[in-house]
């Protein structure tokens, strides 16, 4: 697995049904499921540093864990 362009990773989060909710004090964009979503709210929101050209591997892994995914799972698995 290699780094992923930031805009492509954001598109993947949106594909999973996540929406931008706010920026935190460290300039991360935070994502969560919208109100009323079948999966409910996440305990920990994926955070994306939009000032990065590409998402580092450790950030990808952490964000995937937040939404219950691993490097080998798809939207339905």
Write the layout of secondary structure elements.
Layout: E1 4-5, H1 6-15, E2 19-23, E3 28-32, E4 47-49, E5 54-55, H2 57-66
Antiparallel strand pairs: 1-5, 2-3, 3-4
Question: Which key features would you list for this structure?
Answer:
77 residues, alpha+beta, three-stranded antiparallel sheet, 2 helices
Describe the structure.
It is built from two helices and five strands. It is an alpha+beta fold and 77 residues long. It has one domain (4-66): 2-Layer Sandwich (Metal Transport, Frataxin, Chain A), CATH 3.30.920. The strands form two sheets. It has a three-stranded antiparallel beta sheet, with helices on one face. The longest helix is centred in the N-terminal third of the chain and has 10 residues, at 6-15. The model has no long low-confidence stretch (mean pLDDT 89).
Low-confidence spans: pLDDT under 50, at least 5 residues?
none
> What's the SSE pattern?
EHEEEEH
| Percentage of residues assigned to helices | 25-40%
Mean of residue pLDDT? 89
Quick one: overall form? globular
- Total helices: the number is 2
Strand % is 15-25%
| CATH fold-level assignment | Metal Transport, Frataxin, Chain A
Largest sheet features? 3 strands, antiparallel
CATH class: Alpha Beta
Q: What is the CA-atom radius of gyration, in angstroms?
A: 12 Å
> How are strands sequenced across the largest beta sheet?
2-3-4
Q: What would you say the CATH architecture is?
A: 2-Layer Sandwich
Question: What is the count of distinct domains?
Answer: 1
The beta-strand count equals: 5
């Amino acid at each position: 697995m290699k780094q992923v362009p930031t805009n492509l990773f954001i598109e993947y989060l949106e594909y999973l049904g996540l929406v931008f909710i706010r920026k935190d004090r460290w300039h991360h964009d935070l994502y969560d499921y919208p109100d009323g979503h079948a999966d409910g709210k996440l305990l920990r929101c994926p955070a994306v540093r939009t000032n990065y050209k590409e998402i580092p591997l450790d950030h990808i892994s952490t964000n995937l864990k937040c939404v219950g995914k691993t490097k080998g799972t798809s939207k339905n698995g």
